């Protein structure tokens, strides 16, 4: 048991190190995009050989670094905005009232993140376990989309916030939209700034895909959990989509998956 735990720990540490290098590389390319640094230069920036960096990046993203950066360019973003706009508000979300995921965040400092969580839910009792609700949500990070219909969200927010977050759920994987498009879609076209605030206050990262909201100019813009992470997520999704690893947002029988919204959980506050 001890050896297995040690192996798992080492693997997790390696994945963390690999992502840190990938994030560093993405940041370097973004900072120097005007002169288009070559693969050798990027690999040197993260202290890896060219071959090692190419292999590590391709294993993570599914495509080469050059192709990945094309997916995060302004030109690509503008094209996807045009394609996504037509279908963004076509589907309706069905709701239920079961309790479920109330917070999902990307963390770099475990202790700081836990302290933040305690401040958000001062009356909650915390237990470090992975139950069925959490496991269904975590499957999305291994490209297992078969459990999406079983994911329940347990959220608190104003009516406006919930309307914005519900709209975010309609953005398809690989799709992008703008704050202005969301404002128009919820019949409040002058509320772009308020939409931006609601998007920034999204409590459930990735599951409620606020990272798919960008500026009308095609620039990716800010992100609560870091601009580099946003870039990585958008590029990662586009790369997988391009390789026909299509994320299934619908049940096998054709019915839309159900996301539960519960806005009144004052027992946690």
Written account of the structure:
By secondary structure, the chain is mainly α. Helix content is 47%, strand content 1%. It has eleven helices and two strands; from the N terminus they run H-H-H-H-H-H-H-H-E-H-H-E-H. It has a two-stranded parallel sheet. Helix 1 crosses helix 11, helix 2 crosses helix 3 and helix 9 crosses helix 10. The protein starts with a helix and ends in a 27-residue tail after the last helix. 26% of the residues are buried.
The SSE order reads HHHHHHHHEHHEH
| Helical proportion, percent range | 40-55%
> Termini distance?
39 Å
Mean pLDDT across residues: 76
What sort of overall outline do the alpha carbons produce when their principal axes are compared?
globular
What is the gyration radius calculated from CA atoms?
Answer: 19 Å
The chain-level structural class is: mainly alpha
Attribute tags:
mainly alpha; disordered C terminus
Q: What is the structure about, briefly put?
A:
By secondary structure, the protein is mostly helical. It contains eleven helices and two strands.
How are the elements arranged and paired?
Layout: H1 2-31, H2 39-45, H3 50-61, H4 65-70, H5 74-85, H6 110-120, H7 132-138, H8 159-168, E1 177-178, H9 179-185, H10 192-200, E2 213-214, H11 227-242
Parallel strand pairs: 1-2
